[in-house]
């Protein structure tokens, strides 16, 4: 039986304060390679990634969050990865739980696994999630569940895992270079019939954790709604 290769990809931008902490939490017994894609950071992100011995890819100019992920997945597939886990390197997500995203894919139960920050409203808000971000997350997720017929607790996590098959069959290179990339990849996967599961992960917001501002979040929300409408119409 083939031994499956598991790769963690980290789309990084100005992550010098949190990259190493995120990496240290990744369980090395189940992850074969860690790839950091630096999106033209202005800090020491690249230096730290190289000091840690991580496979490091550098964008000479900033390509955006979606553009960064495209490189992440392209490099992971090129290296022969069977399961690809995306973890934001901002230490907002508990990377020690990586195994619980990988195993259901490895066992053929799901094609995609999500790490949901929304186990309860109290826990999310106490973990530091801004109230406006929590409620917009809830509204968008409700809208997406109604449209797709699923019952996921969150579509907007930066901690997720994909099977090689998903990334080879969906045209992610054609998706947006902006934050809505995350929704496009899920919506297209749902349309293709891929199975999505999730686990609960702790919420961890703090000053060094990256987070888009209200205006960018508003734009992201509008673009997400447009993607859902496109999904329903097409």
What are the secondary-structure elements, in order, as H or E?
Answer: EHEHEHEHEHHEHHEH
Helical proportion?
40-55%
The CATH level-2 architecture is identified as Alpha-Beta Complex
The geometry reads as: globular
Q: Under CATH, the topology is which?
A: Spore Coat Polysaccharide Biosynthesis Protein SpsA, Chain A
Largest sheet: 7 strands, mixed
**What strand line-up does the widest sheet have?**
3-2-1-4-6-5-7
The CATH homologous superfamily corresponds to: Spore Coat Polysaccharide Biosynthesis Protein SpsA, Chain A
Unreliable segments of 5+ consecutive residues: none
Q: From the helix content, strand content and strand pairing, which structural class follows?
A: alpha/beta
Q: Give the rounded overall mean pLDDT.
A: 92
What does the model show?
It is a single chain. The protein is α/β, with parallel strands linked by helices. It has a single domain, classed as Spore Coat Polysaccharide Biosynthesis Protein SpsA, Chain A, CATH 3.90.550. Helix content is about 40%, strand content about 15%. It has helices at about 20-25, 45-50, 65-80, 100-105, 120-125, 130-150, 165-170, 180-190, 215-234, and strands at about 5-10, 35-40, 55-60, 85, 110-115, 160-165, 195-200. The chain has a 7-stranded mixed beta sheet with strand order 3-2-1-4-6-5-7, with helices on both faces. Helix 1 links the parallel strand 1 (about 5-10) and strand 2 (about 35-40). Helix 6 (about 130-150) packs parallel to helix 9 (about 215-234) and helix 8 (about 180-190) runs parallel beside helix 9. The chain is globular. The N and C termini lie far apart (about 40 Å). The model has no long low-confidence stretch (mean pLDDT about 90).
């Amino acid at each position: 039986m083939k031994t499956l290769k598991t790769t963690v990809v980290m789309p990084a931008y100005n992550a010098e304060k949190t990259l190493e902490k995120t990496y240290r939490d990744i369980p090395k017994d189940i992850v074969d390679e860690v790839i950091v894609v630096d999106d033209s950071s202005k800090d020491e992100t690249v230096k730290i990634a190289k000091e840690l011995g991580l496979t490091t890819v550098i964008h000479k100019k900033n390509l955006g969050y979606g553009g960064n992920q495209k490189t992440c997945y392209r490099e992971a597939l090129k290296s022969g990865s069977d399961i690809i886990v995306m973890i934001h390197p901002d230490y907002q997500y508990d990377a020690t739980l990586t195994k619980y995203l990988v195993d259901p894919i490895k066992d053929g139960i799901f094609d995609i696994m999500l790490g949901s920050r929304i186990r309860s409203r109290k826990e999310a808000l106490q973990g530091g999630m801004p109230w406006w971000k929590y409620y917009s997350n809830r509204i968008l997720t409700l809208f997406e569940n109604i449209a797709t017929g699923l019952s996921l607790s969150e579509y907007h996590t930066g901690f997720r895992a994909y099977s090689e098959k998903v990334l080879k069959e969906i045209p992610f290179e054609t998706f947006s270079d902006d934050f809505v990339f995350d929704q496009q990849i899920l919506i297209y996967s749902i349309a293709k019939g891929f199975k999505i599961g999730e686990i609960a992960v702790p919420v961890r917001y703090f000053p060094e954790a990256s987070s888009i501002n209200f205006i960018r979040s508003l734009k992201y929300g509008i673009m997400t709604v447009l993607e859902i409408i496109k999904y329903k119409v097409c």
